Prior knowledge:
With 266 residues, this protein is an alpha+beta fold. Helix content is 32%, strand content 27%.
Amino acid sequence: MTLARAIRRTVLGSFALMLSGCGGMGVPTRDEFMRVPREIRTGAAESVIERVEESVDPAEVAAAVQAIVAAAPLCYPWPGLWLDASDRRNVYFARYDLMSRDWGEEVTSVSQQRMREFVDLGFLIARDRPDIGPGVVEYTLSSDGVAFLRGSPYGGARPEFCPNSQRRVSEVTNMEFGQFECGSLRVTFTHIADTWPSWARTEAARQRADATWAPPTIPLTGQVTLGRQWFRQGAAPPGVQSGSLRSLCLDSARQVIGDDRNLNAQ
């Protein structure tokens, strides 16, 4: 075996591992191997964003847009709270007694009301803890609470629950190729909800979902721009497949700062 063929087999073998880790594929063909950007094949870059090819399968576009629409968040920020440290993960002790003493009854009442809303939505489980102090409440994250929580009540980004829209794309109505701020393929689509999101257990939550998007069975027009993003092996974020279509807005340093998903485009 020549050195060149040995190197090619080694590279293809490594690439097969990358594909199997990302997409469940087997040994790649030469065309599949060459499709991946050179910077990724050689390990020169962690991530590369490419233009979407004009021959892209419309079904792939529809699936990418569906994932983006279904994940669209509606966020509920946590109120200001006085929390005692807990040695149990996902458990928080709200010291409403100390809040009333130092912050006043009005602030305390507003915070208590917001936390009751989270309990009613099923994000938290509440238990009175008079053994710690008068008015102390122990909050435990439910499975939905764990899934939807962003940030931390103990510092850093402000905590908020961000449940998803659970809406579905009913039709992709237009695909426009070009050079846009957040990608190279601008997709216009209609989307709808057959019912309220599973987390919208209260009338207030349903009214907010209706106001943010639209009531169930009422279609809306949306728009999003897509690019194709590749990752070096092991560098893709959790749940993201290398080579998939994503909406990616970049800052002046070419760092991803968000997306341009718009579920209320006119």
